[in-house]
Amino acid sequence: MVANPERRALLADAGLRVLSSTGARGLTHRAVDREAGLPEGTAGNYFRNRDELLGALGERIFERLAPDPARVEQLAEREPGVELATDYIRYIVERLTAQPDLTRALFELRLEGSRRPELGKLLRATLTSGFRLDGEFNAQAGLPGGAFEIAMLHYAIDGLLFDLLTTSIDAGFDIDEVVSTLVRRLLEPG
Amino acid sequence: MVANPERRALLADAGLRVLSSTGARGLTHRAVDREAGLPEGTAGNYFRNRDELLGALGERIFERLAPDPARVEQLAEREPGVELATDYIRYIVERLTAQPDLTRALFELRLEGSRRPELGKLLRATLTSGFRLDGEFNAQAGLPGGAFEIAMLHYAIDGLLFDLLTTSIDAGFDIDEVVSTLVRRLLEPG
């Protein structure tokens, strides 16, 4: 079979829609074919088993959640400091809440990764390298905080996104105020 | 049918084991009967449909994650302050990581709640009242931080637990140091 990256992406996007509407529960190769409007067996040609299918969805999520280079360039021109760090984090929250299905799918896959060692290994490699790159970027850009601070902020923003995009504790505070306070207190305390 | 709270709890515990090993995907009334070693149809007598089953699992998680009254009493005897607040949070992290299947099941249910309005409503009511009670407790105990700080800390600890119990970013820091720094910086900044 000739590899067709566009069709692969189209199938992965269909898989993400299935994952979002039914959870991991309804995600089968057949459901992906149906959602993509393609003949039965197509998804099976691209992803040989469930681990490959789930892994492909993971990769596709990171592709689709990637920042717009123009926005990043604009940010990169500014003076480093806690204000700029806040705007970087605001932009992450903006992107991830604007695509709630993708962000929820990532949470689903991370949970599924704790049950499926193959998927877990693949996702963990991506997440770990993302975390390391965040640290390098932060240092090069002269932004406040080291790896320890970035880890704490990562947990806090993940927990906030989980609350915003799944069943909420309904704390009722302004999200932007939560985000900017988290950044200030965690990156530049005292 | 005579209601039997012990059998109901036994079925819910079986459901939580199914949810943990297969995800929401494998959770059916039939799988619950099988896991509990009870005749087919038993779970159906207690939980009439999927929403009732999922709701019962949610209730059972909160029952099983509840603190040990003796530990809480010990803590309540101490001087209020950031050290005591840290020990309360440490005890939450200790409980939730000691029962990883339950905590993962709660994440699963919160995700499922974003797709199933009935379940979402039920879970949200429990989470919201839990958050309010945390705030009242904190104020009565004279601990640092108000509702805003408690919300931020809640997000951060949720994100940390999600990382510890699912697919991790592998930041590699000492968990207790992460927890105590989060509490200090978020509850008592500057």
UniProtKB/TrEMBL annotation, chains A, B:
Keywords (A to Z) from UniProt: DNA-binding
A GO molecular function assigned to this protein is: DNA binding
Against InterPro entries, the record matches this protein to: Homeodomain-like_sf (IPR009057), HTH_TetR (IPR001647), TetR_C_31 (IPR041583)
Return the PROSITE patterns for the record.
HTH_TETR_2
DNA binding happens at which residues? 28-47
- Origin superkingdom: Bacteria
- The residue ranges of the HTH tetR-type domain are 5-65
* Keyword set includes DNA-binding: yes
Q: What is this protein called?
A: TetR family transcriptional regulator
